[in-house]
Amino acid sequence: MPKQEVTIFNKGFGIKSLIQNELEEDYQSRLIDEIRSAGNTLSVGGLRFYIAKEFGFCYGVEKAIDYAYQTRRQFPDLPIYLTAELIHNPRVNHRLRQMGIRFLNGHGEGDKPIEAMTPGDVVVIAAFGAPTSQMEILQKKGCILVDTTCGSVVHVWKRVERYAQDGYTAIVHGNYRHEETQATISRATQFSNGKYLVVWDKDEAGKVCRFIRDGSSVSDFLSLFGIKCSPGFDPNKDLQRIGVANQTTMLASESLYIAQILRQALVDRYGETEIDQHFRSFDTICSATQDRQDAMKELIQNSIDLMIVIGGFNSSNTTHLAEMAAQRIPTYHIDDSDCILSADEIKHKPVGQIQAVVSKNWMVKEPAHIGLTAGASTPNRVIGDTLLKIISCYGYSI
Predict the structure, then answer these.
(1) Contact residues for 183 (Cβ-Cβ < 8 A; gap 6+)
(2) 254 annotated active-site
(3) Which of 54, 85, 179, 180 is catalytic?
(4) I want to staple 341 with a disulfide (CB 3.0 to 4.6 A). Which of 21, 309, 345, 375 is the partner?
(5) What is the pTM of this model?
(6) pLDDT digits (tens, 9 = 90+) for 166-212
(7) Domain 152-285 carries which CATH code?
(8) Nearest Cα to Cα of residue 96 among 114, 84, 113
(9) What is the distance between the alpha carbons of residues 72 and 304, in angstroms, rounded to a whole number?
């Protein structure tokens, strides 16, 4: 199929003023604004709430939502599709559907397979970016593209591309099935010799280290990592020179640890004097993720009795915030205020589990110190609604 003329917008349409009121109505919270100005604490009856200093929407998320709303205003009569969830927040994606924005390869009403795209269809690239294979199809189809990819993600792509160009295998700390990681590893295989390997955690990274040091069965290695490594991956050859990167929303301390143990494994194999020929690393955790994790570390130093972490159940950065809190405090990861079912029941995703569950007796007795934070994809309005729901469960009101 011949390549069509491609139109890509990556800086919006200059009409933010036209959609500003709509954005504020959908996502802002006067209550949260007032709490911020009061030092991120709130006292109601026998409750004292401590809200993390950094929480909620980051710049990249705000930009993505802004561009999506501008796109709907700019093309009121054209079909608009998203490559995936714009961000990992159910309320935001539901609102986009209400605005008539559909999904590529989705299963909802009006969704459309990517192969059926036509010239003039408008496609919004999600904040996580899109794999190169998907971008190539959309460009060949001649679609109008609106790119909301986060700048921090693009920064990782450039690093991975450089690794591939210089003959280093990109080892990416991330969730293989996450949209961002899929887009990132596709940047390595743009190049003829580009290779990648995705590791989920310290345990998987440790298995890579053992192979680097001692070698082992190649078939066992490939059986373990399967589709998480690039086609034709040969660990004997492709682990001789590696460059480390990470999904931008991973736990920063774990990414740093993984880079350290991989470097040490190569030092043990090749020696310290040769390490620069075999190892590269660059911290690609985004600043917003780091800021929210740092704020969580500070928050849990307080005498907190209960922690509520708000964000999409499939949100990586939110999940890691919940992991941090759960090590010290009873913690509930919810995706919306609706998860607080009653004063007795709460729907939440326990740390380390995939599916949400309903638990009883989630409230703590007064006087209670309650911590609250939210992932980078969570609107202030959701945070404010959650706070009001908790207060009402204790029998108070604002």
Answers:
(1) 128, 129, 130, 131, 132, 149, 153, 157
(2) no
(3) 180
(4) 345
(5) 0.93
(6) 999 999 999 999 999 999 999 999 999 999 999 999 999 999 999 99
(7) 3.40.1010.20
(8) 84
(9) 43
